[in-house]
Write a structure and sequence with these properties.
The complex is a heterodimer of chains A (336) and B (294).
Chain A lengths: L1 H30 L4 H6 L5 H10 L6 H13 L13 H36 L4 H15 L2 H15 L23 H7 L3 H38 L2 H8 L4 H14 L2 H23 L4 H10 L3 H29 L6
Chain B lengths: L1 H4 L2 H6 L5 H29 L1 H4 L31 H37 L1 H14 L4 H12 L3 H28 L2 H8 L4 H13 L1 H23 L11 H12 L8 H29 L1
Classes of the chains: A mainly alpha (336), B mainly alpha (294).
C-alpha cells in the first residue's frame, strides 16, 4: 500500500518535469536556427512552395496554436506527422524502439552480471595486486570512446578475422525474417526462423560487446564500493567472527547486501547506455531509435525531435522510478 | 618511482588510519602521478606539434592519399592525403582546449548558481532546482547532442554546449555543500561579527564548498573530451578539416571495413590515453579524499 502511494506521488512529481521538457523542446527547436521545410524542399523551391509546405504542416499558425495542437495530439497519443517522411511519428517510432531496446537490454544485463562478479571478487581482494589490476582496467574501460571501440571491433572481428558480419544492419535480409517487434532476435525466435536466429545473433555480437565494455566500468566501480562497505560493516564482521561458513558469508551476507544496490545502478547505466547507443547504432548502421532521433535532430524535423526527446526523458525517469520501487521491495530498511 | 619512497612528510600529515588506509594512499599517489604525467606529455606534445611533425595540421600531400604507415608519413595518410601523425598531435590542442575550457565554464557557472541558491534558499532555490531537474531528466550525452544540434558547429558553441550539460550537476553539488556549511557555527560567527553576505559567500562558503568539485572536475574533463569527440564523430562537433580526434576517427570510419586501420585507430588511441590521464588523476584524488574522510 505504501509502495502504491509512493509510486502515485512520484508519478505526480513527474508531471511538472515532463511538462517542462515538452515546453522547452517545443520552443527550442523553433527558436533556434534551422528550417525543416527548407531541408525537404531543397535549394530551388520558391517562396510560394515553402509557404504551401508550411501550411501543410501547420507551421504557419501562431506559436500558441501550434503548441495547443501538439498538446491535444499528445493527450490522444498522436505525436504528429514527420516533416521528412510524411508518415505518422508514432508509427515510425514504434518500428525503431524494438531494435534499440534489444541492444540496450542485452548489453546492460551482461554488464550487470560481469560487474557483480568482478566487483565482488575485486572487493574481497581489496588493495592486493588483483584488485588494483581490476581497478585500472575499469579506468581504461571508463576512458574508451565507444564509437572508436566499435570500429576497432569491426576491424578485428570482420576485416581481419572475418568471424562476424559487416556493420551494415541487424540481420541478413536473405533469411526472409518477418518483423513483429523490430527486435530481430526476438522476431526470429517467435517465427521459428532458424537461419534468422543465427544471423541476428551474429549481427548482435559486436555492437553488444561495444556497449558492454562501455557501461561495465562504472558499474564495476559501484559494485566494488558497496561490497567493500559491507565487508567493513559490523554485521559482517560479527558474522565472520562467529565462524559462519565461507559460503554463508559470501552468499548470505556479502552478495545479498551488495545486490540490493543493483536496481539503482542498473537505472543509472541504462541512461548511459541510451546515450551510447546513438553512437554505436551509427557505427553499426543499426537503424534504431538513436539513428532515427539523430536524423530528426539534424533535419530539424520538429515532431520527430519533440517525440524522441519526450520518450527518452519519460523512459529515463520511469526507469529510475522502477529502480526505486524494486529497491524498496528488496530492502526492507528503505522507507519510502 | 623515487617519489613513492621518499614521501615521508605527506604521510605524516595524514591522520593515522588502519594499514589498508596507508597502502590506499600509496596507490592513490601512483594514480595521481601517472595521470598527471600522461597529461603533461600530451600537453607538451600539443604545444610542440610543429616541431614533432613534418606536415601541417591540414596540409595535403597530393602524392599520397590513404597510404599505409611508413615512408614519408609516420602513421600514413588519410583519404585527403593529410598526414595522420601530424594531425593526431595538432588535434590535442583542440581536444584539450575545448574540454578544459568547457569544464572551467561549467564549474564557474554551476558553482555561482549553487552558492547563491544554497545560501539564499526560497523561490530562487526552488526555480533553480526545478531547472536542474529538467536537465537531469536526460542522459547527458543525449542532452549534449540536442544542444549541439541546435546551437550549430564552432569551437565556442561546443564549449557552451558541454558546459551547459555539466553545469547543473555542479550547481546541485555546491548547493548541497553550502546548505550543510551554512548551519555550521563559523558562519554564524561571521554573521555576528558583521561580515557582509558577499564576504561570507566569497571568503567562507566558496572555498569550503569547492572540496568535492576539485575531485570531480578532472574526471569531468575526461568525460567532456569523450563528449566532444562523440559529437564530432556524428558531424556535430568541430568543422572539417580542423584536426580533432573524434572528427579524424569519423573520417577514417569507412576505411575500417576495408582493413585500413591507420586512419582511425591512432586518433582513437590518443583520445583513450588522454581521457585515461584524466581518469587516473580523478580516481587518485577521489581515493585520497576518501582516505582523509576515514
Amino acid at each position: 500500500m505504501r509502495i502504491l502511494r509512493f509510486v502515485a506521488r512520484r508519478l505526480l512529481q513527474l508531471i511538472p518535469v515532463l511538462l517542462g521538457v515538452i515546453v522547452l523542446t517545443f520552443l527550442l527547436v523553433r527558436v533556434l536556427p534551422g528550417d525543416p521545410v527548407r531541408t525537404i524542399l531543397g535549394q530551388n523551391a520558391t517562396e510560394a512552395d515553402a509557404a504551401a509546405a508550411r501550411a501543410r504542416f501547420g507551421l504557419d499558425q501562431p506559436l500558441w496554436r501550434q503548441f495547443l495542437d501538439y498538446l491535444t495530439g499528445l493527450v490522444t497519443g498522436d505525436f504528429g506527422t514527420s516533416i521528412q517522411s510524411g508518415a505518422p511519428v508514432g508509427a515510425e517510432m514504434a518500428l525503431r524502439v524494438g531494435p534499440t531496446l534489444e541492444l540496450v537490454v542485452i548489453a546492460v544485463t551482461i554488464a550487470l552480471v560481469v560487474a557483480t562478479v568482478l566487483g565482488v571478487w575485486s572487493a574481497r581482494r581489496a588493495e592486493r595486486p588483483a584488485d588494483h589490476g581490476i581497478r585500472v582496467l575499469a579506468l581504461v574501460g571508463n576512458s574508451v570512446p565507444e564509437f572508436w571501440l566499435g570500429l576497432v571491433l569491426v576491424l578485428v572481428g570482420y576485416s581481419v578475422l572475418g568471424w562476424f558480419p559487416a556493420p551494415n544492419g541487424r540481420v541478413d535480409p536473405d533469411t526472409g525474417l518477418t518483423p513483429l517487434t523490430g527486435a530481430d532476435l526476438v522476431d526470429a525466435v517467435l517465427t521459428g526462423n532458424g537461419p534468422a536466429i543465427a544471423s541476428a545473433a551474429a549481427y548482435l555480437v559486436l555492437p553488444v560487446l561495444t556497449l558492454v565494455i562501455g557501461v561495465v566500468a562504472p558499474l564495476l566501480r559501484s559494485v566494488r564500493a558497496s561490497a567493500l562497505e559491507v565487508l567493513h560493516s559490523e554485521p559482517y564482521a560479527a558474522a565472520a567472527a562467529h565462524g559462519l561458513p565461507r559460503r554463508t558469508l559470501l552468499y548470505g551476507y556479502l552478495m545479498r547486501a551488495t545486490l540490493v544496490r543493483l536496481p539503482s545502478l542498473a537505472a543509472l547505466v541504462f541512461g548511459t547506455a541510451i546515450g551510447s547507443t546513438v553512437l554505436v547504432e551509427y557505427v553499426f548502421s543499426w537503424q534504431g531509435f538513436g539513428q532515427w532521433a539523430l536524423r530528426g535532430l539534424l533535419y530539424r524535423d520538429y515532431p520527430v525531435v519533440q517525440a524522441s526527446v519526450l520518450v527518452i526523458a519519460l523512459c529515463y525517469v520511469l526507469v529510475f522510478l522502477i529502480a526505486d520501487v524494486v529497491h524498496a521491495i528488496l530492502d526492507p530498511r528503505v522507507r519510502i | 618511482m623515487a617519489d613513492l619512497r621518499t614521501s615521508g612528510p605527506t604521510e605524516a600529515t595524514d591522520p593515522p588510519g588502519p594499514v589498508a588506509g596507508a597502502r590506499d594512499s600509496r596507490f592513490a599517489r601512483v594514480l595521481i602521478i601517472t595521470g598527471a604525467a600522461i597529461l603533461a606529455v600530451i600537453a607538451v606534445a600539443a604545444l610542440c606539434a610543429p616541431l614533432l611533425s613534418s606536415w601541417g595540421e591540414t596540409e595535403i600531400d597530393p602524392a599520397a592519399t590513404l597510404t599505409a604507415p611508413g615512408g614519408g608519413h609516420l602513421l600514413g595518410t588519410d583519404g585527403n592525403g593529410m598526414d595522420i601523425w601530424s594531425r593526431v598531435l595538432y588535434a590535442a590542442r583542440l581536444d584539450l582546449g575545448i574540454a578544459v575550457a568547457a569544464v572551467a565554464l561549467a564549474v564557474t557557472v554551476g558553482t555561482l548558481l549553487g552558492l547563491v541558491a544554497g545560501y539564499r534558499g526560497g523561490w530562487l532555490d526552488d526555480v533553480l532546482m526545478r531547472v536542474v531537474d529538467i536537465f537531469q531528466a536526460f542522459p547527458t550525452f543525449i542532452l549534449a547532442l540536442a544542444v549541439a544540434a541546435l546551437l550549430g558547429n564552432g569551437t565556442v558553441n561546443l564549449i557552451i554546449t558541454i558546459a551547459a550539460v555539466n553545469a547543473p550537476a555542479y550547481a546541485r553539488l555546491v548547493r548541497a555543500e553550502v546548505r550543510t556549511l551554512r548551519e555550521l557555527p563559523f558562519v554564524d560567527a561571521a554573521v555576528t561579527s558583521g561580515a557582509s553576505t558577499t564576504g561570507i559567500l566569497w571568503r567562507h562558503l566558496l572555498p569550503n564548498s569547492l572540496t568535492p568539485v576539485r575531485v570531480i572536475a578532472p574526471l569531468n574533463c575526461g568525460w567532456a573530451m569523450l563528449t566532444l569527440a562523440g559529437l564530432s564523430f556524428l558531424g556535430l562537433g568541430v568543422s572539417i578539416p580542423a584536426a580533432e580526434w573524434g572528427a579524424m576517427i569519423s573520417l577514417g570510419a569507412a576505411d575500417v571495413v576495408g582493413g585500413r586501420w591507420w586512419t582511425s585507430v591512432p586518433p582513437g588511441l590518443a583520445l583513450l590515453v588522454c581521457v585515461l590521464g584524466f581518469s587516473l588523476l580523478g580516481e587518485g584524488l577521489q581515493e585520497r579524499a576518501d582516505a582523509k574522510r576515514r
